[in-house]
């Protein structure tokens, strides 16, 4: 045994099989050694749309229906494509907020520390 009461790392005695020894023996995880330029290129590719020309955007996103010569004349999605997307993805609506019980609102006001301070001052 060493001075701190623990055996050496290769000890398998009963007193060294507890949580402390498991923690000491756990595997060390080190980050992957990758080429950082590869990661930068992957991030850079996803944020370049604002630098592209309209022709490049039209080729990159053919479903956007951009009129490349006169973008202001672009009509947007056709009605059948809009119906298909509405059917597949659902409406773009948020669920209404859950109504809160009035008793719970009343009790919640006493949860603030300022109310406790005022009550204690009385």
From TrEMBL:
<feature type="region of interest" description="Disordered">
    <location>
        <begin position="72"/>
        <end position="93"/>
    </location>
</feature>
<dbReference type="InterPro" id="IPR004014">
    <property type="entry name" value="ATPase_P-typ_cation-transptr_N"/>
</dbReference>
<feature type="compositionally biased region" description="Basic and acidic residues">
    <location>
        <begin position="72"/>
        <end position="83"/>
    </location>
</feature>
<feature type="domain" description="Cation-transporting P-type ATPase N-terminal">
    <location>
        <begin position="48"/>
        <end position="121"/>
    </location>
</feature>
<protein>
    <recommendedName>
        <fullName>Cation-transporting P-type ATPase N-terminal domain-containing protein</fullName>
    </recommendedName>
</protein>
<dbReference type="InterPro" id="IPR023298">
    <property type="entry name" value="ATPase_P-typ_TM_dom_sf"/>
</dbReference>
<dbReference type="Pfam" id="PF00690">
    <property type="entry name" value="Cation_ATPase_N"/>
</dbReference>
């Amino acid at each position: 045994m060493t001075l701190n009461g623990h055996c050496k790392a290769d000890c398998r005695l009963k007193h060294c099989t507890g949580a402390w020894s498991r923690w000491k023996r756990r595997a060390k995880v080190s980050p992957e050694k990758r080429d950082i330029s590869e990661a930068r290129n992957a991030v850079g590719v996803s944020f370049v749309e604002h630098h592209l020309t309209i022709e490049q955007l039209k080729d990159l996103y053919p479903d956007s229906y951009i009129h490349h010569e006169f973008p202001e004349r672009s009509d947007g999605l056709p009605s059948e494509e809009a119906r298909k997307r509405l059917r597949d993805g659902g409406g773009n609506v948020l669920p209404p907020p859950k109504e809160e019980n009035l008793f719970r609102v009343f009790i919640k006001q006493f949860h603030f520390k300022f109310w406790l301070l005022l009550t204690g001052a009385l």
